[in-house]
Amino acid sequence: MRRSVLLLGRVSIEMSEYASLSREELIARLRSLTPSQKSSDYSHLREGKKPFDFSRHPRRKVALRFCYFGWNYSGLTIQEGNTLMPTVESVLFNALAKARLVDPAAGLEGCGWSRCGRTDRGVSAAGQVVSLWVRSNIGFRKANNTLEQATQGNPSVETAGSRDPPVIGSELDGSPYDHAPLQAEIPYVRKLNQILPSTIRILAWSPVSDDFDARFSCKYRHYKYIFTAGSNPCNDIPLMQHAASKFLGEHDFRNFCKLDPTKQITNYKRTMLHSTIEQFRHYSDRDNPREWGNTLLAPPGVYVFNLVGTAFLYHQVRHMMAILFLIGSGLEHPDVIDALLNVGPSAHADQSTSSAVRLPIIETKPVYRIADALPLVLWDCSFDSSDVTWKDDSGDPLPPLPPYNQPPPFTVPPMPTESDSNPPGIPRYGKDSLDLFHNLHKQWTENVIRTSIASLFLQASCTSPRPRRSLSPPPHPSEYTDSSRQPQDGDETDKRGKLPRRRRNYDLGGGETRDEMRYVPLLERERGATVEEINNRRKGRKRG
Predict the structure, then answer these.
(1) How far is CA 366 from CA 197, 350, 362, 395, 423, in A?
(2) Using the 8-state DSSP alphabet, how is residue 364 labeled?
(3) CB-CB contact of 379 with 222 (8 Å)
(4) What is the rounded CA–CA span in Å between residue 437 and residue 470?
(5) How far apart are the C-alpha atoms of 303 and 240, rounded to whole Å?
(6) Which positions ≥6 away from 307 have C-beta within 8 Å?
(7) What is the pLDDT of residues 418-451, one digit of tens each?
(8) Residue among 122, 137, 231 at smallest CA distance from 466
């Protein structure tokens, strides 16, 4: 109490002193009490932490294998300008920068970024791959050596005075760095998964050679398009299976893609190694809770279009699936695929139709809507085993996916017991890999429950689609001319003497359907411009 009285008395005395000062004296007093604003007075303070010096750390080239739910992102690649949702690459690159694995100021080009398969907005991936240079823990400089001493006689490591940071070449033996076992390397999988959202998961990583490129070193890409038998009408699965086989081999797919003039593509030939429609197999937990393995469950009415190719065009898989839906709904003949692949006289000899059947030449793409993006998944990007060795952070190899032409074995040994000193070399038994499994399993469980609830809603609606009406088979493509097919003897015609249009509902994938009052066959529809015309228009805009 006494101290408070003294403080109040002191304040009142100081206030009385200020009251007796003139305006100029008050300003002078305030200036004397204000600290100097010179920058030299704050030289000991810094804004934020000291910048991370990437040039003081070695780096190595790696490949990352990861999965992501496409409906959360505006595609894979980083795009110019603002997007409604982030892209997968922007999120992944920001995570790499936050983990100080890449220099954010150098961007994608600075780390030699290369992607294997580009996916569009809404498309998911289970086995996407990118290759890049990242910071490494293998090879710290020796404490008693200068950088010049450490790099003598080893051209694979660049000096700190060079533009790029020191790198670890393909051959690590003889490097001037103190090498540690693989377990001492940066845990790339765990480090990135701790930063990334749950919708993007790093599955494995692999050391690769300096000349490895995720795009050009890939042997083939495997896409899966998941769909149901449909509500109204039900798709004719055997007919779709027959039609899908027509895509096998090398063909000109200009009528099965989006023509992008910015690419100035002139060669639209691509090779399909595998093209089948099969019953889709779901993941399913085993009945035995002691085993962490998995089995495959084939639910009725769910199918998958498996397409494997060495390379793909823009929106190619979704264009192909759209035509398969039209065939499955009975609106198009399966040989319409042969007609759309018949872009010129030289292409006709490659078609699978009878030599006695003359197909029209379709040089330009008819206007049609492509299939939905939601069910499309990039399942696998395949590389030579000599190029990549997928592994987890502990160094255990990741079992390779079965080849596209072999059924998956999915034989998993039982979970190890406490007495097992060396559990089987499957990464799911490691702590980090189990964390990854539980994270993905949680999302799978949530979606299975959502699907089950939606199934209850369908049951509660007490409704069902109308029975499918029997329609006359669609005409063969050979019956069409460049304009339209003319009525033949025995055909039913309308009041104007024209062939009647058929009203039909057909699938577009992902639960999307289209109901057309008067369906126009593909070969009678409006055609787009030729490839040459589209490319020339782009060139003309650039000149202007």
Answers:
(1) 41, 21, 8, 52, 58
(2) S
(3) yes
(4) 48
(5) 11
(6) 222, 223, 224, 225, 247, 272, 274, 275, 317, 320
(7) 554 444 444 455 677 778 888 888 988 898 898 8
(8) 231
If one counts every other C-beta atom within 10 angstroms of the C-beta of residue 204, the result is: 24
The torsion angles phi and psi of 72, rounded to 5 degrees, stand at -95, 0
| Secondary structure element (H or E) that encloses residue 95, with its range | helix 88-98
Active site members? 120
Specify which residues 397 forms β-bridges with: 391
Cβ neighbors of 193 (< 8 A, separation 6 or more) are 201, 202, 435, 436, 439
Work out the number of other CB atoms within 10 angstroms of the CB of residue 343: 23
Residue 20 has pLDDT above 60, yes or no: yes
Structure letter (DSSP) for residue 42: G
Using a cut of 0.90, tell me whether the model's pTM lies above it. no
Helix (H) or strand (E) holding 468: none
* pLDDT tens-digit series, residues 62-76: 999 999 999 999 999
Largest CA distance in the chain: 119
Helix (H, G, I), strand (E, B) or coil at 26: helix
Give the pairing type, strands 124-135 and 376-382: parallel
